[in-house]
Amino acid sequence: MSLRERMRYWFDNTMSRGTASLIGWLALVSVGLVLVVAGLTAWLTDEPEGAGFGEVLWLSLMHAMTPSKVASDKGSTAFLAVMFVGSLAGIFIVSILVGLLSNGLKQKIDRLRRGRSRIAETGHTVVLGWSDQVFTIIGELVKAHASQRGSVIAVLADRDKLDMEEEIRERIGDTGRTRLVCRTGRPTEPGDLRLMNLDKARSIVVLSPDGEDPDAHVIKILLALAKRAGDHPPVVASLTSSRNLAAARLAGGSQVHLVDSDDTASRLIVQSSRQSGMSVVCMDLLNFDDGEIYLRSDAALTGRSYGDALHAYQTATVIGLRRAGGVVLNPPMDTVITAEDEVVVIAHDDSLIHLASGQASFSEKNITVAPATPLEPERTLVLNWNARAEHIVRYLDGYVAPGSMLEIAAGHPKAGTGLDGLRNLTVNVKECDTTDRYALEALGVGLYQHVIVLSDDRFKPQHADTRTLMTLLQLRDMQTVAGERYSIVSEMHDENNRSLAEVTEADDIVISDTVIGLLLAQLAENRHLADVFSYLFDSRGSEIYPRPASSYVTKDAPVSFSTVIESARRRGETAIGYRLASGVNQPPHYGVVLNPSKSQPLTLGEGDSVIVLSER
């Protein structure tokens, strides 16, 4: 390589170092120009008279920086010519300098706009990734932090910073005292993760993105988090498939709590199909609006039985115990509470959890006794099919009596596949366009006790929700015309479509993405509640059941909720609230009241339900 080529290569490298390097070269050129002009002025002219070389340098510099000064020059022709050349060269230098500064500032502003600066917050909640769940999570965290000053939620996603902020503002609105910080970057890249100051974060939420193979993306983020140096705050992540849980646990380590989205949504759909209002109760327990779940230690309860503890709080409802072996909801009533146990309670705020003074007061004459109803074979109809439908059928098989019938009507090519080994259900599959009225009437829907309408995963979420709405409208009209009654539970994607679906008066509408988002927000705030929610969504042990109020208290008679609690206690159940039939179609709670006042009178009539934790 020749010397010229080496010099050119060196020059190109220095020029490629950015705006600072370019300004450095421009400064050298400017110094050279000033020296040349000053030298020519001193050599060729006697102007200005009596001036030293320093003054000539200053004059040359002013002409280079302010070319307009040449208009006021006086002197010999040679002096004017030298000043004109210096001023002309200064025009080019100043123009280049302005362009460089403008370009450098533009690059800096663009970098800030893209959100590439490292955040300095501490104790913040970090959300990695982007999906529709992000709006639910941020909205719930804003409610949880409403009374806290200086709380921060930081979002890192491979999207434009301004677009993220605008979309969040449109969907959520005012975030109150909680400040939102968005950064553009790939959560799988260690360099981008450093932007989030994870060492000082309170917790991290990893979202399962939309698109193909989302679990692989989540696992890669967990690997990046596990390999990074520094402190590792608790991590909550959602997966769409149970098959990937083992790999995700290996990738994330012990600091990660995994939420199986398909499994959780499948359990909730099945439980909602069995007990009307189940999804509404779970949504109320998962959000931060009213009743929330807390863990409480009270020395005054040590040595007392769980049954006695049900009446211990005036403004909180006891639902279980957290022991060394894990969480147990609705344990046997004679279970003795030890000093190491924590009581699991529902309360509107942790500041309202106080022991009641005096003995519980209830009305003995208003307590009713109803015989247990035996489990009998049932007929269930499933409309449509998707990837989680197999989970739904298998969980349903664990609930129903032997000899029960399941009819699957769908146009999906995989409908009814992978269902070997069922114990209690006999399955039939029919080809059906579930949006067609005549096809639905041909199924004889009135012969079934329960109808489950799933979201067809062959279509995009919004289109699938539209088809679901059409099916629900057809079913409602068929019920009205034929005078039939069967429970309907429907699965949808978008929470915004729920208000439209309310017109169909379906018994339950499960918004799977919203449920998972609420659960992630709860665990981000208090990961110790993971065992509580895992127990709630598990088919083993006690579960939530809305049951006829007349089975617990006298119908249409004023009673206190303490009387309801006592009636449920005698049946080995824990009462946590009630549901009024008059409010079934009234958002946002749809008639559900959790953790009501124990002393305020209430009247439960025909169609009203008592919500209890009970064994099946």
Topology overview:
Layout: H1 3-15, H2 19-44, H3 53-65, H4 77-114, E1 125-128, H5 133-144, E2 152-157, H6 161-172, E3 179-184, H7 190-193, E4 203-206, H8 214-227, E5 235-239, H9 245-252, E6 256-260, H10 261-274, H11 278-286, E7 292-296, H12 306-309, E8 316-323, E9 326-329, E10 342-347, E11 379-383, H13 389-399, E12 404-410, E13 425-431, H14 437-442, E14 450-453, H15 461-482, E15 487-492, H16 498-501, E16 508-511, H17 512-525, H18 530-536, E17 543-548, E18 558-559, H19 561-570, E19 574-579, E20 592-594, E21 602-603, E22 609-614
Parallel strand pairs: 1-2, 1-4, 2-3, 4-5, 5-6, 11-12, 11-14, 12-13, 14-15, 15-16
Antiparallel strand pairs: 7-10, 8-9, 8-10, 17-22, 18-21, 19-20, 19-22
Helix pairs in contact: 2-3, 2-4, 3-4, 5-17, 8-9, 10-13, 10-17
What is this structure, in a nutshell?
Keywords: Ion channel, Ion transport, Membrane, Transmembrane, Transmembrane helix, Transport. The chain crosses the membrane at residues 21-44, 78-101. With 616 residues, the protein is of the alpha/beta class.
What is the helical fraction, as a range of percent? 25-40%
Radius of gyration using CA atoms only: 35 Å
Summed over residues and divided by their number, the pLDDT gives a mean of 83
Count of DSSP helices? 19
Number of strands: 22
Shape: elongated
- Describe the sheet with the most strands: 6 strands, parallel
Beta percentage is: 15-25%
SS-based class: alpha/beta
Strand order of the largest sheet: 3-2-1-4-5-6
Weakly predicted, low-confidence segments: none
Task: State the separation between the terminal residues, measured CA to CA.
Answer: 85 Å
InterPro entries: CASTOR/POLLUX/SYM8-like, CASTOR/POLLUX/SYM8_dom, NAD(P)-bd_dom_sf, RCK_C, RCK_C_sf, RCK_N
Subcellular location: Endomembrane system
Keywords: Ion channel, Ion transport, Membrane, Transmembrane, Transmembrane helix, Transport
Pfam families: Castor_Poll_mid
